[in-house]
Amino acid sequence: MSEYRYNCTDKSIVLPYFKKYYVSFFFRFVPHVVTANTITLISTGFIVLMLFVSIRFDTINTGLLPLLLAFCLHNYVVGDHLDGMQAKNTNTSSPLGEYMDHYLDVFNGAIVVYVLTVFFSPIPDSVFYCILVLNSLSFAITMVEELETKQLIFGLVGTLEGLIILILFFLTWQLGPIRQFWEAELYGGYARYWVVIVIFALGYVGTLIDVIRRIGYIPKQFTAFVVVNILLAFALFRLEIGHLLGWIIISLYSGEYISKVMESYLIGKKHKYPDLLVAFAAIFFIFLEIFGRSYDEYLPVVISGLTLYLGIKVVCLFSWVVYQLKEHWLWYNP
Questions:
Q1: Where are the domains of the chain?
Q2: Given pLDDT bands bounded at 50, 70 and 90, which one contains residue 77?
Q3: What is the pTM of this model?
């Protein structure tokens, strides 16, 4: 860990110009004493605010709320690059910083997906769970590639480009003529704004294909994660679990596995399998769905128990990794 070096190759077309001509403007206002991890936590706070807004309000695509979403998303994107610039400028890059930055992005990305689906609600349950699964798989395979190749690689078009598109979309939603354009029918009763969802879905699929092509094989641990993730999503879909609760469960399950992957890379441990209890739970749910629904009165208790179990485990895994890397924590930059 004392010889840590952030090994990342970002092929993004937009990133160099974005950092040089836009993020650098904000960077001049960042005090030297503020640590990179502090910036990471602040930028994450804006994403949490987006989640609060999406849960608090029944309809978030009216009034000034799209502007609030664009504002929060913008601050997150800028902060997500400011922390790396601050770490480099103060020579404080560390495995703890990488873990906090990328691991929190697991949930930040999931929140963005959830807010987007709420904005376009109602959307079919099948589409909702497909987007959730694709998001979790694409992020997980990126971390798996770093573990397998000791290098983090981002493609020509990635998260930054997707978030910029989403920010512009929220801003244009406030303009009457453009909003009418978005709400007009595209095909088969679907509005034109579904193009945004399709772009995100294709981006996730492209990431999966690109990473697997570079690695040249699929680790068995990731294969297990894919299978269980799909089974779990299918079970939640068939059980007609609400979007919010389904999103929480899928996000926590993904966070559990990705935390293990990042710990294996940053601390030097064996690539671990995802939680096996969730696999049994998913199979059990599907079995009951096929052979009868007499268990309905117990379902809320079982689902709540599974959610609580995953939540506690994710918190414990996160705390354990942070504890192992605690020597790299700084309260301020000297």
A1: 8-328
A2: very high
A3: 0.91
CATH of 8-328, one of 3.20.20.100, 3.40.50.1100, 1.20.1080.10, 1.20.120.1760: 1.20.120.1760
| 176: its two tokens | 């009457």
pLDDT in tens, 206-241: 999 999 999 999 999 999 999 999 999 999 998 888
Letter for the amino acid at 329?
Answer: W
**What is the CA 129 to chain-centroid distance, rounded?**
14
Q: Which residues contact 320 (CB under 8 A, 6 or more apart)?
A: 263
Q: Token pair of 76, please?
A: 């997150």
Q: Are the C-beta atoms of 334 and 36 separated by less than 8 Å?
A: no
Q: What element of type H or E holds 153?
A: strand 152-154
Of 134, 106, 131, nearest in space to 118 by CA: 131
Is the peptide bond preceding residue 219 cis, with omega within 30 degrees of 0? no
In angstroms, the CA 228 to CA 212 distance is: 19
The one-letter code for the residue type at 41 is: L
Q: Is the separation of the CB atoms in 174 and 67 below 8 Å?
A: yes
